[in-house]
Amino acid sequence: MNRTDSGHAPGHDHGHTIAGWTGTGMALAGSVAAGGSMVTAWYPGLVLGAALVALSACTTWVLHLAGWGKPGGPRPPAERDWRVRDRSAAQGHPGCRGCRLAGRGRRIAAPAAATAGAGTLPGARVYGERAAETEAAH
Questions:
Q1: Entry pTM
Q2: What is the DSSP letter of 127?
């Protein structure tokens, strides 16, 4: 089997994103809190843990809509870094229920130049920039 530079099979994308890691961390913390509270019969902790799990889903959704998630399916290898922001989230991803719930994909988006660079992490790039750099290097 052929492997990419990251050691994964071609076309394979784990989807490691800021939205994914944040939501997973919050859900894990909420599950541990709820489980520990259940064992100790501390009912307020059980409710707080369950609320944190629900909040993790909302947080993941908001981060996905802000562009820190990923569209469905594998991304090109140059765009798989977790710091790459998805600018296509503003228009909505095709077939994405979360984007449809937010009302995306039904309106015309603002020009990319108007949103470029807004809210990026240091060293973060936009989908397509790395692919263009890679093609220019070859």
A1: 0.66
A2: T
